[in-house]
């Protein structure tokens, strides 16, 4: 099985990605890096520790990533993030605190160390801003060639964004870092809104988790229902809520869930033109070998079926 590192801004759909990675036997989750984004970095780390405890996965270490973007000195959670994920990132649901703490090593040092240790075997899955990977690349550019595969949730190529008409939330948090990653990191897969908006979950699905009657089943149903209601009330989608982050984990393990096109990408960050945080093909690198696969199609039915199977398995014990 592959060695996986998740980089989460936990976050309701990040919590789902975590559950899938914990229970899929095809992958060995060796650590989670927490990021700012849907919440403050400390809250994301605490949520991750608490969810791992709930899922019976206290063996997975949690590391602190950056607390703000590469171009700012501080970070405030966007109101839209609070509306979708709750003030605490996990649907305002109280989850029993884990007895564990975050590791003393920084998330960035951990990523660099694991890249050298596992090389090709390492799969890195960021489902928040790309600040941590960008910083790690600045410290040690070698990791661009070392990490076996990086599958990120972020961006939008063929559909509009969810923060501005061009910009997806994770990229919006730190467009400069995202541009750096798209230019430097090899073996990159972009799982953006192009595909994630086609994977919707409804309360019919979460009722099945609730019906398990387990603590984990009820908590996961509660936090997902908060997110489904937010999608409905904010007018994002009345048909269900998008499985953004778990789709990235699925694709990292089995790329056949999506159809991809090879295309070198870049991210715009011109504040003045308003063209800030758009993911688009890099004209300067159109003739170069492609380092990025962009997901543009998804086998929704198969993915949602597998997602439900894994969730029921992990929430059942
Ligand atoms: C992405 O932004 C975050 O709010 C979600 O967790 C997901 O990673 C969707 O645009
Ligand atoms: Ca996320």
UniProtKB/TrEMBL annotation:
Stored InterPro entries: Inosine/uridine_hydrolase_dom, IUNH, Ribo_hydro-like
Keyword Transport: no
Regions crossing the membrane: none
Gene3D superfamilies noted in UniProt: Ribonucleoside hydrolase-like (3.90.245.10)
Domain Inosine/uridine-preferring nucleoside hydrolase intervals: 4-304
Entry keyword set: Glycosidase, Hydrolase
Domain of life of the native organism: Bacteria
Pfam family, one: IU_nuc_hydro
GO MF annotation: an example: hydrolase activity
CDD domains per record: nuc_hydro_CaPnhB
Name of the protein this chain belongs to: Nucleoside hydrolase
